[in-house]
Amino acid sequence: MSNQALLTPFHKNLDLKNRVAMAPMTRSRAANEGNIPTEDLHVTYYVQRASAGLIITEGSQVSKDAVGYINTAGIYSKEQVEGWKKVTKAVHEKGGKIFIQLWHVGRMSHPDFHDGELPLAPSALNPNAKSYTPEGFKDTVTPKEMTIEDIKQTVKDFKNAAINAIEAGFDGVEIHSSNGYLFHQFFNGTSNHRTDEYGGNMENRTRFFFEVLDAMKEVIPQEKIGVRFNPSLNGMFGITLDEETIPTFEFIIKKLNDYDLAYVHLSEPFNDVSNVPFAVEHIAKHFRPLYNGTLMINAGFDQESGNKVIEEGYADLVAFGKPFISNPDLVERFEHNYPIAEWDADTFYTPGKEGYIDYPEYSEEN
Ligand SMILES: Cc1cc2nc3c(=O)[nH]c(=O)nc-3n(C[C@H](O)[C@H](O)[C@H](O)COP(=O)(O)O)c2cc1C
């Protein structure tokens, strides 16, 4: 029996067989028509990884408006719910737990996904990024500033997606409020220039997020809701740090102590921010003292640093992304100190089985 911190069961508000979570990852294998998870691909992929303490699925759109990439799954149609039911059933049969990540890309999209209409965003500010459309990469456009009606409709979409997620058999949901997508666009002053109650001070910039959270907890227990943030994201996904960014995340995370959520999931910086003004370099260390609930940390961890961050008391759970792509049996590899297989970035988003469900479990031959 291994006594590694990562492999210790977690029995607090969540009941997990170990502290190794699979991070949410878009893999672009959903059926082209209808953004539906498929039996031959999705079921196999997630079942192969069911020894994780908790799987968090790929970002899954809460509505048609929320789409920004081809072949990404959704959780707003009946067919999508039916597709996901097969995944959750099979993962549960293997003794796994699975949350679905609820996603709205906001301005990280393209009119090609919206019958020629502009994507929605807090303000009409182009992220100057690329959108991967059915016709290949295209430049993003200046989005439409969301009206109050658009905001209210999106709150309803998240609420509805939460209901659908439970119907589909998920153990819970994670709100994707990270990585430059819709909520992050509201939080950040460089993407939110609104002058109404959704812009300006941090209470206003976070209002939409809390409205969604409050709406969701009306329909599913809040112990089934996790949230994800990437506070030091900079120079990627259209986001630039400013002097209010970290205080805004501090404000959010302290306020979340008033809730009883499944967890708060934070990412360490995705790139070197040691010389970036207004960045926090060590996210877990910085935010752990501010939050009383279950804290999950991610980005760049391996077996050693994952064990250490838990032992040092900076996190309860560690999410692994890329290592789970190429090591379906990541937990067993940690348990036996087996080597970790490298992932192939060329097949992260390509269609079909290759680079998706063909990574083998460890054996002495591979
Ligand atoms: C192929 C790929 C797809 C990703 N898709 C998502 C996503 O849908 N939602 C999300 O919150 N993060 C997404 N991420 C970020 C990962 O969850 C994770 O934060 C990142 O890979 C860093 O963790 P790692 O070093 O353990 O891989 C993605 C990352 C990769 C490599």
Q: Which small compounds were modeled alongside the protein?
A: flavin mononucleotide
Morphology: globular
| Strand adjacency order, main sheet | 3-4-5-10-11-12-13-14
The largest β sheet comes out as: 8 strands, parallel, barrel
Weakly predicted, low-confidence segments? none
SSE order: EEEHEHEEEEEHEHHHEHEHEHEHH
Overall number of domains: 1
- Using only CA atoms, what is the Rg? 19 Å
CATH superfamily: Aldolase class I
Tell me the distance between the termini. 24 Å
The CATH first-level class comes to Alpha Beta
Q: What structural class results from the helix and strand content?
A: alpha/beta
**Strand runs, count:** 14
Helical proportion, percent range: 25-40%
Tell me what portion of residues adopts beta-strand conformation: 15-25%
Number of helices: 11
Organism: Maribacter caenipelagi
Keywords: Oxidoreductase
GO molecular function: FMN binding; oxidoreductase activity, acting on the CH-CH group of donors, NAD or NADP as acceptor
Domain NADH:flavin oxidoreductase/NADH oxidase N-terminal: 9-338
